[in-house]
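Protein modeling request. Please complete all fields; requests missing the sequence field cannot be processed.
Requester role: graduate student
Desired output: 3D structure, token encoding
Chains: 1
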Amino acid sequence: TLDKVMSLQLDLDNRNLELLTLYGGWGAENHVAKRPLLPGIYVNDSKTGNSSNRHNPFFLIVDRSANPSEGLAYGFNLLYSGNHYEMVEATSYKKLRVQVGINPFLFHFELKPNQAFETPVAVMSVSLKGQNGLMGQFHRFVNQHIVRGPWADQERPVVLNNWEATYFDFSEAKLLALIHHAKRLGIELFVLDDGWFGRRKDDTQGLGDYDVNLKKLPHGLDYLADKVNDAGMKFGLWFEPEMVNESSKLFESHPEWAIRADGRKPSLGRHQMVLDLGRFEVQAYLVESISKTLDSAHIEYVKWDMNRHITDFQSEAYNQGEIYHRYVQGLYRVLKILTSKYDYVLWEGCASGGNRFDLGMLCYFQQIWTSDNTDAFERLSIQGGTSLGYPLSTISNHVSASPSHQMLRRTPIETRFHVASFGVLGYELDIRKLDNIEVAAIKDQISYYKAHRRLFQFGEFHQLKSFEKDGFVSWMVKNPSSSEAVVGYFIDHQSLLSGRDYLPGLGFQEDALYTISRREHDHRVKLFGGLINQVSPVHLNENGLIVNWIDKHRSIEQLMKMKKLPPLIASGAALNHGAVKLLPQWAGTGYNEAVRVLGDYGSELYYIKQEKVPD
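Delivered output (615 residues):
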């Protein structure tokens, strides 16, 4: 009988080290927590049945005196999607003991004679180049040895997901309108999210059933997929296979397939229960039902969601102490069959966002929905933490509406794109309601992303600056030869005391010359409020009909007929050592080509390319 079995144990010297873990919750996944390793026991774990958004299984132990790109750093992870356990014990003799494995919480696994138990694989890496060096090693490991299938090294398409545009309230006509507008913008993959099946008109019913809702889609999925394909895009579909609603045909036929305790009312999360994936008959039902759906239309993308924790602990098929682990084993079996059978499909994992962002899922899914929170400013923390252990090619990000549906925060559309571009780009807003300025902005964003997609998804990623230490965030992706890079520059609140900004860089050839091109984008007229009357020949009401019309059709740059400045030329040494000074930000004294307007939550992208050396 197994009650505790670890996958890794390691003893280290505690030489001024600190522990970095990823913590959070729904909509706030993978924030970074730092704590000095003083004498004591530190546990990072999950008890939810998933790897969880509370505490990711990835963690680091780093030299407290190190900077992001220099110093000793150890990293650890576990190829497992269920309850995990990481323990670091710091002794009074300046030693550390590290253990990684399945969480012993509610774990009591019985083996009969001649049966075997295989522990999950633990992963460890060490670098003398700080967390950025360690991050690069984990990114290469995941891209080369974890993610698999034809999509493993392929550039991912730009997505439009209908969820935040329509939620459950969609019709075939609404979807066709979205498809029409998506084609104009340059979208490459249209995804139909929740609500396409069974009795599903809200989240209280329908989960577990796979018959198409003909009231919403009278011509079926194949018709919709054909319309998407005719528009030159791929078609994708959302599933939540691991769940069941009480109001569903499946539960009415097989109530015993839901995980629940005898004699107790089942606990519901999002009005649903978890199917007992440890049972072979449940696995068979999922494989058969999903296969039938994927065979019914030309579907080239699947978003696999899982929207609650496992909180009841009883199964008719095996003892209570085995339920969590057998669930994960059953899930892996289903995914292995389906992802092998449909290897041409791009598979994206999701669990209320990043509730199951782990190496185990990445063995089957090429990318994972990072968070249901699409607010750009919050995403700086979410994506920044996630990227410490997972490559940008696996991090799925969407540009959504402003104000954010999750935070009610207003952020510029360009910042929403700039943050989302570091990873796999998508859009999730009602594109039918965009004005001319927004349409032009999104078209340009998608064009820019496609031009630099390989860098954004598979480039070497470096976190250069942070709000905590530097007052701004800066990220960089570059190719292995450092001849090409994109640097992102993000601020929180504009200040007139911030001084002259500079462009940070790292790893450029010191004696080489580089062209630095700022991604130009326009600004809305209403951003400037009543100041428009300082340049207008007639007085205008800043909230009146005329200004509102102009704001939807002309940018301030178009009205002022501003010219674009030529790119900068600088040496690699100047980039590496912070000597590239940027144009001054807006300071209330006028706007022209030599002034940068960022504002609160503003941002910029800079494309850097090495000059060719004459023969």
